[in-house]
Specification:
The protein is mostly beta strands and 272 residues long. Helices cover 9% and strands 32% of the residues. It is built from two helices and 15 strands. The strands form two sheets. Strands 2, 3, 8, 9, 10, 11, 14 and 15 form an eight-stranded antiparallel sheet that branches. A seven-stranded mixed sheet has the order 1-13-12-7-6-5-4, with no helix packed on it. Strand 5 and strand 6 (82-84) form a beta hairpin. The two termini are 31 Å apart.
């Protein structure tokens, strides 16, 4: 049985990551781009049956995806708004840095429940070579509620994907996001975790109004080379001084990539 949980807001600070030190790096909300659309409306015919806290079987990507120095060829798309790479995840609230003891990409880690017939489902497709699209389309929340429905989408691209200018290797897209409070939790989170307590979260994660921050926005990330760097909302002007938020994002990425370059020499993994 699920139990009631309450969470304090995360400390909003930009920190450098050092080996052996568990750290959460907070990405500023200014990196979110106003939008309100999915990346693609082709959400696919593959669906996860109505459930609470369930996951797909291992989904073969047909490409390699590298995150935090480890390379994966498949993953588990979890009903609660995220994808993991070494096994399914049934956790329903983002405890700690994205609440997983394995690498995770979290579009909207919250207690999704699609058992109500008025709720939509988790869809996924691999229609474009080198690209996975997972969509939580009009999904309800625990316990069996469908009076409010969230819609969000994950785009995940392979290491060799030719990324168009202005996009990234991972994208989060949000349409209407009216719910965050469930019968078990009052927060949600979005970002990346390495499974060892280190990661990146979008500012506002684990706060009670995070859904309103994300609603009708999107954000792209670059993860090639082991780091996580936000793709700036607009291409920088040659010779211009970077805006404070952009400079902070670049500093975060450089600090993390220095850590990863040391760590990746020790860790290599491939998920089936």
């Amino acid at each position: 049985m699920k139990h009631e949980w309450k969470y304090a807001a995360v400390v909003l600070a930009l920190v450098a990551v050092a080996p052996g030190y568990a750290a959460e790096t907070v990405l500023p909300q200014s990196a979110l781009v106003p939008d309100g659309n999915y990346y693609t409306n082709s959400i696919g015919s593959n669906t996860l049956a109505r459930n609470d806290d369930g996951s797909t079987n291992s989904v073969p990507f047909g490409f390699n995806f590298t995150l935090f120095g480890a390379t994966y060829s498949g993953g588990y798309i979890n009903n609660n708004g995220n994808i993991t790479f070494t096994g399914p995840l049934s956790s329903y609230v983002p405890n700690g840095v994205l609440g997983a003891n394995q690498p995770i990409v979290s579009t909207y880690f919250a207690d999704v429940d699609t058992r109500n017939v008025e709720s939509g489902l988790l869809h996924w497709q691999l229609d474009t070579a080198g690209q996975l699209v997972a969509t939580w389309d009009n999904v309800g929340y625990y316990s069996g509620h469908a009076d409010l429905l969230n819609s969000f989408q994950l785009v995940l691209r392979g290491d060799n994907f030719a990324v168009p200018e202005g996009e990234g290797r991972v994208g989060f897209f949000y349409r209407q996001m009216p719910w965050i409070t469930t019968n078990t939790s009052v927060t949600a989170a979005a970002g990346f975790g390495d499974g060892a307590g280190n990661g990146f979260t979008i500012e506002g994660s684990n706060s009670a109004t995070f859904n309103t921050v994300l609603q009708n926005h999107h954000i792209w990330f670059d993860v090639a080379g082991g780091g996580v760097i936000v793709v700036p909302p607009e291409p920088p002007i040659v010779g211009a001084v970077p805006e404070p938020a952009t400079g902070a994002l670049l500093a975060i990425g450089m600090g993390w990539m220095g850590y990863i370059s040391r760590r990746k020499k020790k860790v290599k993994a491939t998920a089936a």
